[in-house]
Amino acid sequence: MMKDPLRVGKAIRAQLEHEIPRDLPLEKDFREGTNYTITDHVNELHAQLCPDKRTLGLFTSLVNHLHAFARETQPTHGEWTRAIEYLTRAGKESTEYKNELILLSDCLGLSALIDELNHPKPSGCTDGCEPGPFKTDDAPELPSGSSVASTNTAGELMYFEATVKDTKGQGVPGAKAEMWQADGDGLYDVQYPNRPEINDRARIIAEPNGHFSYRGILPVAYPIPSDGPIGDFLHALGRHPHRSSHIHFMITAPGYDDLTTALYPSHSPFLGTDPVFATKKSLVTSVTEERDPARWKAMGFSEGEVQKRGGRVWLWKYEFVLPSVEEVVELKKRHDAKVSKL
Amino acid sequence: MMKDPLRVGKAIRAQLEHEIPRDLPLEKDFREGTNYTITDHVNELHAQLCPDKRTLGLFTSLVNHLHAFARETQPTHGEWTRAIEYLTRAGKESTEYKNELILLSDCLGLSALIDELNHPKPSGCTDGCEPGPFKTDDAPELPSGSSVASTNTAGELMYFEATVKDTKGQGVPGAKAEMWQADGDGLYDVQYPNRPEINDRARIIAEPNGHFSYRGILPVAYPIPSDGPIGDFLHALGRHPHRSSHIHFMITAPGYDDLTTALYPSHSPFLGTDPVFATKKSLVTSVTEERDPARWKAMGFSEGEVQKRGGRVWLWKYEFVLPSVEEVVELKKRHDAKVSKL
Fold first, then answer.
1. Mind telling me how many Å the CA of A48 is from chain B's nearest CA?
2. Which of B146, B208, B214, B250 has the smallest count of CB within 10 Å of its CB?
């Protein structure tokens, strides 16, 4: 025992040969209802020991908010146990293609908030949203006016046209619009077994005035995966897993801030109860029916093709407004000033 | 397509045959810097759909605090990804005997806080702390004065004596004190391969005046498991995993509130940096050396036994103060009044 004046066990002794951890005097007693609670104690410990300023800022805020949550809601031991079990299960049931903790962050509105905080937009610019799990790296680059859907794709015909503009209303030159979407069965190409073809996705090269269009299929609504823990979460809150119909876009142009977003047709159900909170009102637009064969032809559809698919084409128009890099740098400076106060 | 006027995909159609989820009008646009943010939107949705008041209260507070945390700290996408990956890994690496999410809750001070909130103590009562993972159901019931350590147990000899009192200073009749502790190598009996014997744990029956004692081994410090995600967390914050030396107690007596706690000798290292924030100052007491053979005998040790183990016995004394059930009911009423406001 003389070898162990600190009275630490074997496991610690093995580590102490390399490093003696710093101890601090236990100066104050921490107790609820006093001027010095466990929250103060945890944060004071971190303030004295944490080697990195950003880590300290993140965890000080996290400890403050988690502890405030506990004081506000007074969780029972049973509720705490269920929360631990839920998070453990969410980790265990996550796979490479379906992460339950990302879904939880999405369904708490946290992912959308962090996306918005990271992409401040000057007034009048198109709102962003998260890209979601179905973006791939292999979308073909196609000229404006191309078809993005193969002939066998399930669904109704759609013609999408848009202009990419700056905050002054001028068309932006050099824009590319990557789009990816579900088909008329609510499935992305990557969700079909063995992914028979690249479909319903492309990198469209806009015209020099910022205008671009493509022919494709009207997307329909589909659910997020709800067979695991996130389904239980949504059920407990009275919510459903169904996302509104949408097309994803990632718009880029030299000198402008990248825009990742999605557009929603106003006819879609679930706009008011979207599980991941991506249906910003500014991204919802009406889609109209085009029944004029002359217009079908101008869009690039053959009359036979349209007649075979119900005798109409859905026409979807939008104006994307991108901030310049300078405009965003200016806004971010203000945000960073807030963060550096931590 | 006529069959699908809502334009929802196959996966949703299959579910809609059973139930049409309620949609809400998308009345307001949510955006940072306006009067209606995503936080308002999420909480309003839950307020309209959640079928259970307590669930709504818990998640409204959680959403408010997680969103406030994000606004305060402005996490980058990279930081958010690391947090998701961390929690996923914590779930995946958890086992029946080592739950990384419990450890994370412990090391953020959250477990200790929730324990304290659930066990409000009138002033003067002994503070509580969590039982930890090493309590078993098979501790033998022994009369006061018994030995709890087998002859081969590693460590220095200790005599522990205490009285269980009420808030008026009177000894409490009918008390039982379950104790469990590590030995002189920092290991609990259950940590030895195949657990050769029940050791260093017992349910001691106190005398009618509340006094009890036992003979055993001075516990030494040991680390919490730090080979997984919690080790990375502690390292990032400049902290170590070593718990101070301690004895766990669970004291029960008819008519009194159960007390789960632990006591710490003032000679222990790591009192100021305990990883799970259980070293409340009121639980730390000095332990003295007894070198008088007459006293050893009175304690129940043989002189030969003591001489073989370094020629001294450590004497540890404490007074446990338990609130009556009535006193706690009164305090809890006040706490519940707070919670019901949610």
1. 9
2. B208
